[in-house]
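Q: Focus on the shape:
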Amino acid sequence: MSKPKSKGRYGEGTVFWDKRRGRWVARVSAGIRPDGTRDVRVAEGHTPSEAQDRLNGLKAEVSAGVEGGVSYTVAEACEAWLSYGLKRPDDHPTKVKYRSLIRANIVPLLGRARLKKLRAEDVDHWLAQVAKDHATSTVSLLLGLLRRIIRFAEARGKVMRNVAELVDPPEGQAGRPSKSMTIEQAHAMLKISRGSWLHGYIALSVFTGVRTEEARPLKWKHTHLNPVADQTCTCGERHRETTAPHVEVWRSVRTKGDTKTPKSRRTIALPRHVVTILTAVRASAEIDAEDAGRALRPEHYVFASEAATVRDAANVRRDLRKATKAARLEGTWTPREFRHTFVSIMSDAGVREELIANLVGHKRTSTTRTVYRHQLRPVITTGAEVLDELFDSGQLGALGIRNPSSDLRIH
């Protein structure tokens, strides 16, 4: 049996033979814990060289400020990140989404693993399992979440390195391609939704191309159905000038209320048939407000929930599923596909791609003045004019839009 090694200087640690354990033991002092007790870290090895390697590892952890022990699990790291690392309210849509993804895909498959002992091979195996049932984009998102979780744990001394950074995501399943409705399908959706809150939401989405997160928080103060604006003429005097009916797409339900990108902030003219439908929506809202003993105010939402709040995305999807089923549309449809429908209608009408991109907020060269909310913005009218021409020519006349006076109450 080899002769036990002598004790090293303080902080350097020591390796010695432990007769009781029958192992070589590496031990190093990491100082004093916050509670006043000594932080002594111990590891074992079958040979002196193995124990020395363990000692070097312990010293590296101490030097890096990493906590001792290996009991901290991936599941604990996930919950810590959700609680303290993701700086959003618990009911924020992003946090709800991430919490669901983590608890459904990371915790069940990796949760029991000790974070310090997690290997790149373990992450590879987990990704291979995830890729069997999820689209490539979801696989990449899950790996990104795991990287953020371990990075958060690394910054708090739970682990020395982020093994998830060493791994690339594999190809997942083919995602469901987005699609657009035909004129006939849009007709069916508008017809079946007449009398419900979806009627105006569908009309606005299909014929302006706004995103669902832009439509849901739209307020009446940003919806101008018969607008009159103050203007200053060249002589310096103020006068009143009527502008085209339009909506100001300046806000969304994203973090801090901003649109997806600055270029997404735009002011879009409304086709006449959309103005007719939204006029009915407003009249219905005014009646409901009067029945509730209050007045309809500019800051109220156009498509408000029954509680007068922004309508939840899940609520929209649920009502849309009911409507598509009632309209006998085949397949699964989502709110974002109204936007695709708008692009298809405009493209079929021969509208230039540059204009379509501008209308939906994709073009980088959108004029700077459209992002200044305190100025009177020029209204992008060309899209509305094209749709009005299609409507007048009969191509959209089959949508069944009629005088709204007979069904003003929209819920």
Summary: The first strand starts at residue 14 and ends at 18. Residues 118 and 366 are 48 Å apart (CA to CA). The chain has 13 helices and eight strands.
